[in-house]
Amino acid sequence: MALSLDGLPETPAPAEAAPAPVGRRVRASLVFARGGGTTVLSRQNVPYPFHITRAFRMHPGSPDLATLYLQSASGGLYAADHLTLDVAARTGARVHVTTQAGTVVHRGGPEPTRQETRLTIAADAFLALNPDPLILFPDAHLAISTEITAEPGARAIVTESVACHDPLGQGRPFDRLDLGLTIRTPEGRALVRERSRIDGAAFTGPDSPMGGHRAYGTMVVLGAPDDARLAGPLLRQASDAAGCLTGVSPLPNGAGLGLRLLAPDGGALSAGMEALFRILFAALSGCEPGRRRK
Fold first, then answer.
1. Does residue 62 contact residue 128 with C-beta atoms inside 8 Å?
2. Which of 110, 115, 160, 213: CA 20 to 30 A from 133?
3. Does residue 179 lie in a domain region?
4. b or e along 273-288 (b: 16 or more beta carbons within 10 Å of the residue's beta carbon)?
5. 26 close to 48: Cβ distance less than 8 angstroms
6. What segment(s) does the record annotate as region Disordered (predicted)?
7. 231 in a domain, yes or no?
8. Residue 14 is assigned to a structural domain of this protein
9. Nearest-CA neighbor of 144 among 83, 59, 62, 207?
10. Tens digits of residue pLDDT in 187-220
C-alpha cells in the first residue's frame, strides 16, 4: 500500500478509462457539371487520404462521359476513421466514378470506422459510382452510410460491396458491419430507408444468414429505362454465370431497381458485379463501358 507524506494510508486514485481512439475526420467533395459540350470536374476538395486522377475519356462513342478514379493514399481505412465523400452531378453531366483497387478496412475498436457517401444527382444527369469491394480484415468494425438525393429524370448506378480476408489464413472474422441506405427527393422526402447490421461471427459462422457465401454486394439503379436487358431473369443469369447468387426487385415508392449479390469470395463477387454493371451502364448511358485500366 502506498503511504502519503503524513504517514496515513493513501487512497489509490481511480483508474482512468482508456482514451477513445481518435481517427481521421475528413470530408472530400466533387462536383461535375456540363461545360463546353462535355462533362468537367468543376469543383473539387480532396484532402488526404483521398486522392483523384484527372478525368479520363474512355468512351469513344460518348466523349462527353468522364471517368474518374478515386484512390486512397493511406493504405485503407483505420480504427475510428470517419471519411465522407460528397459527389454532385449537375444537369447534363455524365460521369463514372470508380476506384483502382479494393479498399482494406483494418482492425477497429469500440468506435466504428465510418464511411459516408452523399450523392446529389440533377435531372438529366447520369452518375455511375462503382468502387471495388471493401475488404474487411479481422476485427474490422465498419459502418457504411449512403444517402442519395435525386431529381426526377436523374439516372444513376450506385454499387457497394464487401468481402472478408484474413492475411494469416486463419479464418478470423471481422467485428461488425453496419449498412445504411437512404434515397430522397430534393424536397427531403425519403423514398427508401434501409438499415442492417451483422457481426463477423454470425457472418462467417455455420448458421450464417449468408449460407456459405463470404462476400456481399448491392446495386441501386435510378431512372432505369424500359429496356429488355434489365429484365430480372437476364440480370440474374449474367451474374449467376460468375458464381453469384442474385436477387432483383423494385425499390419502394418507385425509386428504382435494387439488386443484391452473394458470392463465395471477393473474386467471384467482383466478377458478378462487373457483369451486371456492364449491362446496366449500357442501358442507362447509351454506350458500352470502357475497359478500366487497373
1. no
2. 110
3. yes
4. bbbbbebbbebbbeee
5. yes
6. 1-20
7. no
8. no
9. 83
10. 999 999 999 999 999 988 888 888 889 999 999 9
